[in-house]
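Working notes for the structural subgroup meeting. M.R. asked for a predicted model of this chain before we commit to crystallization trials. I am recording the input and output together here so anyone reviewing the notebook later can reproduce the run.

Input as submitted:
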Amino acid sequence: MIMAYAIANSQESQVESPVFSVEDYLLNPPDHTEWVDGQLVEKQGINAKHGRIQARLARYWGNYKEEQSLGGDVYTETPCWTGERGRRPDVSYLTPELVEQFGEFTVLSQSFPLIAEIISPTDGAEEVFSKVKEYLRSQCQEVWLVFPESQWVLVITEQQQVLFNHGDVVKTQQVLTGFSIAIDDLLA
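Returned structure, recorded in C-alpha cell form:
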C-alpha cells in the first residue's frame, strides 16, 4: 500500500493524516474516512445524536422498501466513488437494478441514487453543498441534508431544492417514491 504522511489543517489544530493513492482507497478504504484530493479525511462531528438519526433513517428507509416490496439495499457509511473523490454517505439506498449490477462491492463505483448526510455544527456550508453537487454529478438522483440542530431537512435533486421544517412531513422526490416521515419523528 502506498502511504505517506502530510500535515492537514483542522479547525482546532494540525493533525497528521495519511495520504493514499486513489487505487489504495478503492481497494481498501479505511473506516470513517473519505478520500479527498489524495488525503484521507476523517469524518468529524459524529456524536450520539448523529448516530441515532443515522440509524433511525436507515431503519425507516429499509422498512419502507421492505413493506413496499421495492427491493434494493440501504447502507450506512458505505464508500462510493464519485469520479472525483471517495465519499461515505451517512445513509444511502441502492436500487434493486444496481444491487444486481454491482453485487458485492468494496467501494460503489458511482454515487448511490439516494443519499442522506446528517450535518454537524462543524460542517462548513460550502463543503456540504460542494459535496451535494459532486454526488449529483455522479448519478445520485436525490440528496437529503439533515440539520438536527435547526430541525430542517433539505431535499435536493437536479431540478429542485425543497426545505422541510420542524412540524413538516419530509418526502422523497425521486427515489423510494412515496416514502415520507415526520421531521419530529426522525429528529426526536
